[in-house]
Amino acid sequence: MLNKIRHSVQKFGMLQGGEHVVVAVSGGPDSVSLLQVLALLAPEYGLTLTAAHLNHGLRGAESDAEERLVCRLCGERGISCAVKRVNLTELRQRGRRRRSLEDLGREERYSFFSALGERVGASRIALGHHREDQAETVLMNLIRGSGLEGLKGILPFRDGIFIRPLIEVSREEILTFLLTQGIPFSEDSSNTRDVFLRNRIRHQLIPLLQAHYNPRIVDALNRTVSIVRREDDCLETTARRILDTWQIPDSMAGEGAALDISRLTGIPEALQHRVVKGLLEHLLSGSFRITSRHIGAVIDLCRGEKPAGDVHLPGQAVVRREYGRLILSRGREDTPPAETAGTGGRIPGQFCYPIEFPGCVEIKELGRIVRTAFVEKAHREAAGEGSLAVCLDFDRVQMPLTIRNRREGDRFQPSGMKGTKKLKNYFIDEKIPRRRRDSIPLLADRQSVVWIAGHRLSERVSVNKNTKHIAKIEII
Ligand SMILES: Nc1ncnc2c1ncn2[C@@H]1O[C@H](COP(=O)(O)OP(=O)(O)OP(=O)(O)O)[C@@H](O)[C@H]1O
Fold it and tell me: Across 289-367, where does the E strand assignment appear?
């Protein structure tokens, strides 16, 4: 068994040599053999060992006897042993959320191991999971419903810290090892209680599968794990490569980073999830946990019919769709677009100001000024027209003129077009995101919108060869 373990340690890169390892010892056969194996490998690998035992306080005298056994085994091997006592039943009653004892116990154990690891300066935490645990985990995940992530089972080496040296050995090999080494262990009586799902899988489902379907079901499930892990690695590498070629910038504050949705929808569905996961991890810079619900919502946003929408993520990050683009932004409020400079990115409420000639009026909501003047025909060339400054035929305007934002039913005759079209349709055709539409100043006369600032002038007021009086409107 020792050679088999050496092989696993090497294959999964669990130890390089010289590590301080916290060994989690419950007192059961798996973790007692783990303690013995690591004690035997310690000189070879130059390991320092600290054992950790959590007394859950659930089984009275039996729990205390286990604690004593662990301390004794450690003492005999010259290994220091840290013990923590908790009362799980009491902890559960005090907790705000109702948790299963199984979950609570696991949480307590891992936080104890991690805190101890930090205190003693350990770089590894060793746990006694083995082949049967692996098979049970895969079945548990299958029953709950799982993707490749769950079918990868228990990882031999996780997060650069948790190692499972016994993951490729069977319970039978462990028991034989303990017997030949003459090492005592305790049998946790709660392991035989079928209230826990894992125990029911161990005592009912696996024996049933062995008796009626496949006597080597544990081997088969362990094979599945190896295959799934290989294929999962391949998908993960491919997804990473795709993301690398997209070159998403690191800084996604303010306006954020934009991405063509077709890039995402153009890759196979199985990869879309991973790529979106990678995108969101990048966006949240590891500060928040990404759930499959977040990933699903972003994919639905990209695949859906609606050209606009957003998905809010933890930490005020937002993924927004604007037609064919996906915008990833870390802040809730975006940097103000040109139309909303001075508003701090807020979408303004309705506004409407009368326009005087010549004159000046402030659009408070946008922090902008509208300036009007008459321009001599001969000087039109020098009038400095642009996207925010236009000249129009003053005689064709139906006074009064106002500067305002959009209203329901607004119509507009884009220059060069005969008929009018709904302003809403103009915005849609021009792919102007909905959140920007209220921030666009419109020059309107009694009849309709005559200028969409920053965009188009109406054909109805365009200057032509018959124009006598030219008015210039400018937004500054
Ligand atoms: N009370 C305990 N004190 C110290 N270590 C423990 C204790 N209980 C479990 N362990 C460690 O955790 C390993 C796995 O045990 P077990 O399967 O009961 O735990 P688990 O964390 O619930 O596993 P899983 O997460 O797979 O359900 C053991 O082999 C041992 O290394």
Answer: 308-312, 318-322, 325-329, 352-354, 359-363
Ligand 1 centroid to Cα of residue 31, in Å, is 8
User: What CATH number corresponds to the domain at position 37?
Assistant: 3.40.50.620
| 110 and 174 together in one domain | yes
Percent of the chain whose predicted confidence (pLDDT) is above 70: 91
ipTM: 0.94
User: Ligand 1 centroid to 173 CA: how many Å?
Assistant: 19
pLDDT in tens, 6-32: 999 999 999 999 999 999 999 999 999
Q: Position 351: which residue type? A: F
CATH of the domain at 251: 3.30.465.60
Predicted structure pTM score: 0.65
* Interval between CA 410 and ligand 1 midpoint (Å): 68
Question: Ligand 1 atom 28: the closest Cα is on which residue?
Answer: 128
Q: Does position 346 have pLDDT exceeding 70, yes or no?
A: no
Query: Residues near 347 by Cβ (< 8 Å), separated by ≥ 6?
Result: 340, 435, 438, 439
137 with 174, same domain: the answer is yes
Range of the domain at 251: 247-329
Nearest-atom number in ligand 1 for the CA of 154 is 26
CB 127 near ligand 1, within 6 Å: yes
Q: How many domains does the chain have?
A: 3
The finding on whether 106 has its CB within 6 A of some atom of ligand 1 is yes
Sign of the C-alpha dihedral, residues 437, 439, 441, 445? positive
> Domain for residue 346, yes or no?
no
* pLDDT 10s digits, 362-403: 888 887 889 998 888 877 877 777 778 899 999 999 888 999
Are the beta carbons of 321 and 434 closer than 8 angstroms?
Answer: no
In a domain, 335, yes or no: no
Cβ-based neighbour number of residue 370 at 10 Å: 23
Non-local CB neighbours of 288 within 8 Å, separated by 6+ positions:
313, 314, 315
Greater model confidence, 292 or 165: 165
pLDDT score at 368: 82
Tell me which of 324 and 184 has the higher pLDDT.
Answer: 184
For residue 77, the surrounding DSSP H or E stretch is helix 60-77
- Say yes or no: 420 and 282 in one domain: no
The CB density around residue 385, as the number of other CB atoms within 10 Å, is 16
